[in-house]
Design goal:
By secondary structure, this protein is mostly helical. About 75% of the residues lie in helices and about 0% in strands.
């Protein structure tokens, strides 16, 4: 079972490698490069592209963990069917265009990025290649099946969640000299991964968090110390108005920082109120 695996034709690998590179650029503050990567992802992995269709086939096999065996077997079967229905010539053409764009607009070194679940992605690629014997197909499918039903395999996502986000948090702490709150860590995690799903989860989280913050600030205006100080009341109203403006704004580093500072402010207001 020594089928050569071409990782440059493995759409899931390229996608994960781009996400890894985008995260690194975010940590380094390389905003121009981050924008290039995000634009590449939007260009090649939009919902109408064949690359996106194949990526969804991959993701259905390496993103689902802790499932029961029967469900996992059905997902493998449906993923293989869906992948076979993709126009192979059109897919190859789009793969080539993506590879060219990565080489020209970024760097060929992107393809050397470490992707924690690379082995799993390579196995899925072999299953989708349709060049395996029935025996080898069953062997590899059983490997994927074990990954899907084994909850422990979720550890493949740990490097991004803990190490990368940890470095980002450390950098933020160095800049603002405060330990992050749980809600701030949650916001950072959503922000880092926002370009993987068109910021859907980030937007949902922000809607809830901004609503919570506004509610807390409106309530804070009834606290004696703030109510008695016209300047503090005015500042509170200005922050609430700023949060209202974020409902239509694109989330960038400045918006992120403002929300995180507001999260810290709300905590300090209520900590002081409780202590008094």
């Amino acid at each position: 079972m020594k089928n050569k695996h071409n990782k440059k034709r493995n759409i899931a690998f390229i996608y994960e490698a781009l996400i890894k590179e985008a995260t690194v650029t975010l940590l380094r503050g390389e905003s121009e490069k981050k924008i290039k990567i995000v634009n590449l992802i939007k260009k090649h992995f939009n919902s109408k592209s064949l690359l996106y269709q194949e990526l969804m086939c991959y993701r259905s096999l390496y993103k689902n963990q802790g499932l029961d065996r029967e469900t996992s077997e059905k997902i493998i079967k449906e993923a293989k069917i869906a992948q076979r229905l993709i126009d192979p010539h059109g897919l190859f053409k789009q793969q080539t265009e993506l590879i060219d764009d990565v080489n020209k607009e970024l760097s060929p070194t992107i393809f050397n990025n470490f992707v924690p679940n690379y082995k799993t992605l390579a196995t899925i690629a072999q299953i989708f290649s349709h060049k395996l014997s029935p025996k080898n197909t069953v062997i590899l499918e059983n490997q994927i099946l074990d990954n899907m039903i084994n909850k422990e395999d979720q550890r493949e996502d740990v490097p991004i969640d803990n190490i990368v986000i940890g470095k980002f948090i450390e950098k933020f702490n160095q800049k603002y000299s405060d330990d992050l709150l749980n809600e701030q860590k949650e916001l950072l995690a959503r922000y880092i991964s926002s370009f993987t799903d068109n910021a859907v989860e980030l937007k949902m989280f922000l809607n809830e968090e901004i609503t919570r913050l506004k509610s807390k600030l409106i309530e804070a205006k009834t606290i004696d110390e703030i109510k008695a100080d016209d300047s503090m009341t005015q500042k509170t109203d200005e922050i609430i108005e700023k949060l209202n403006s974020f409902s239509e704004a694109t989330v960038n580093d400045q918006v992120l920082t403002t929300i995180m500072k507001t999260q810290q402010l709300v905590k300090e207001i209520y900590d002081d109120a409780d202590s008094n």
